[in-house]
Amino acid sequence: MSELEFLNALHIDLLRHDGIDVARSPHELFQTSTIQALLGGAFDGDVTLNELLEHGDLGLGTLNGLDGELIVIDGKVFKAELDCTLSRPDLQSLTPFAVVVPFAPGPEQRVRGLISAATLEHRLWRDPDRPRAPTAVRIDGRFEMVRLRSVPKQVPPYPSLAEAIGHQHRRDLHDISGTMVGFCFPDGLAGIEIVGFHLHFVCDRRSHGGHVLDYTLRDATVRIDNAAELHVELPAAVDPPDRRHLVDQSTLRRLESST
Q1: Is the pTM of this model over 0.85?
Q2: Angstrom distance (rounded) from CA 89 to CA 4
Q3: Whole-number average pLDDT of the chain
Q4: Which residues of 33-186 form beta strands (DSSP E)?
Q5: Does domain 109-226+251-258 have CATH number 3.30.1330.80?
Q6: Residue 114 neighbours by CB distance under 10 Å
């Protein structure tokens, strides 16, 4: 199958900024830029947070200059600072990479007991191959532990994402209630997305959060929204993804686990 046939089969639209509209349909993901561009250091985008919210009420991302971790929950945007404390960013701020969806989940699933991240993911799908289509996830509950990270704001000339993550700051939260939001993308979307699970966390008090590196769950409600469409806005400086020149995403996983 050719690259174009692959994208069409998954109902993916590649758009420029002047081609985006304000329609929000259930199960339709909207994304700014691609993970391939972000991996290469494309840390400046052209979509505001206000525009982002026109396309979804749940999601994640970052701000221009890789300035913190974004969490979109219940239509509100939070920014995890370097110490993983939360602030409310200006909605005119620009994002170089974010994914949102008008969250419309199916029946909720209740999960109890001390459960690791890997165990929960296996229970949700009972399939070691993960979902075969883009999937939005929301997990509300009590956590034994959540390991978070954020990264310092970068300045031009920008490094690669792997280099920036080499300076990440971690924070472990224990015995805490909160919400994880994010996505699971199939391997076929490598270059466009971070394949596998990508989750961000906010505590119930909305005081701490960030990119999730690991967690252990006590008791939670899980809701899943299977996406039907993916609309990807490409900033002017970002080319369509080319699988022949992908940056290896395993580099990010190694840095996250070792730094």
Answers
A1: yes
A2: 37
A3: 88
A4: 47-48, 58-62, 69-73, 76-80, 86-87, 94-95, 97-101, 109-116, 135-150, 169-185
A5: yes
A6: 11
| CATH topology for the 3-101 domain | 60s Ribosomal Protein L30; Chain: A; (3.30.1330)
Is residue 56 within 8 Å of residue 181, measured between CB atoms?
Answer: no
- For the chain, the structural domain boundaries read 3-101, 109-226+251-258
Least confident of 11-20, 42-51, 82-91, 174-183: 11-20
Token readout for 144 is 């034994």
Q: Rounded distance, CA 181 to CA 204, Å?
A: 13
Same topology between domain 3-101 and domain 109-226+251-258: yes
Amino acid at 153: K
pLDDT in tens, 133-186: 789 999 999 999 999 999 999 999 999 999 999 999 999 999 999 999 999 988
Q: How many Å is the maximal CA-CA distance in the chain?
A: 48
pLDDT at 244: 46
How would DSSP label each residue in 195-238? -EEEEEEEETTSSBEEEEEEEEEEEEEEEEEE-SEEEEE--TT-
- Per-residue pLDDT at 64 exceeds 70: yes
